[in-house]
Amino acid sequence: MLWLRESPSYFRFRNRTIRLEELVHDEVTGQKLNIDSGAFEPATQDDIDAVFEPGADLDFSALTEEQFVKETEEARNHYLRGEGPIFDIYQQIDQVLDQARQERRQLEPQERDMLTALRRRTFDMWEQEFARRAAGEPPSFRYSGDDPE
């Protein structure tokens, strides 16, 4: 029987993020990030089993919720292109990171806090966008991962 220490639990798994939850009857279900669309999709039983028994060659680590949001948003920023408020925020994030790199310095505490807040904001914006689309509303913006309609 599979079980989690906490539900939900968060992981980096095969170069993407995955969120697992334990349901009432000790059943584990999950959502994994699709890096092509930016959306979360149901994790397969094979994905779930691999999280519980990771192999030596598997890119895997347990994450806090904050790390999960950070890694999810870093992947979306890296793999997706588009225009609109989310991508404007990604541009702000990139500018802060580029500035620190150019100055060859670590991020300052206030910069780290700002990046954490910006990533949480984009994470929530994606969740709202996918909920709107699931409810049959038209997209509020287009991006490279959109399915053609």
What does this protein look like?
It is a single chain. With 149 residues, the chain is α+β, with helices and mostly antiparallel strands. The chain contains 4 helices and 5 strands; from the N terminus they run E-E-E-E-H-E-H-H-H. The chain has a 5-stranded antiparallel β-sheet, with helices on both faces. A hairpin with a 2-residue loop joins strand 1 and strand 2 (16-22). It is globular. The N and C termini lie far apart (41 Å). The model has no long low-confidence stretch (mean pLDDT 89).
Structural class: alpha+beta
Fraction of helical residues: 40-55%
Shape: globular
What string gives the helices and strands in order?
EEEEHEHHH
> Rg from C-alpha positions?
17 Å
How many separate helices?
4
What is the spatial order of strands in the main beta sheet? Answer: 4-3-2-1-5
Q: Give the rounded overall mean pLDDT.
A: 89
Strand content: 15-25%
Q: Please give the alpha-carbon distance between the first and last residues.
A: 41 Å
In the predicted model, the low-confidence regions spanning at least 5 consecutive residues are none
Query: Major sheet: size, sense and barrel closure?
Result: 5 strands, antiparallel
User: Strand tally, please?
Assistant: 5
